[in-house]
Amino acid sequence: MAIRVKPKYVLDADIAKCFDRIDQEALLRKLNTFPTIRRQARAWLKAGVMDGKQLFPTSEGTPQGGVISFQG
């Protein structure tokens, strides 16, 4: 019933490259956790991404398809 009465909005957003340039050091500083976990997160950020047999290193951002990337 409310669908017929209230205005509707649709948000269409392409976030495929949203996290490509996130500052990894700033992200790690905001990660309020134990040093051991922070070191593991840093390793995940630096690990890069494999596409087929090719490795794409990451110096910035959170690699899409990587261990800590958002899979929504």
TrEMBL record:
It comes from the Bacteria. Residues 1-72 form the Reverse transcriptase domain. Keywords: Nucleotidyltransferase, RNA-directed DNA polymerase, Transferase. The keyword Electron transport does not apply. One of its GO terms (molecular function) is RNA-directed DNA polymerase activity. PROSITE patterns: RT_POL (PS50878). The keyword NAD does not apply. Pfam families: RVT_1 (PF00078). This is RNA-directed DNA polymerase. It comes from Nostoc sphaeroides CCNUC1.
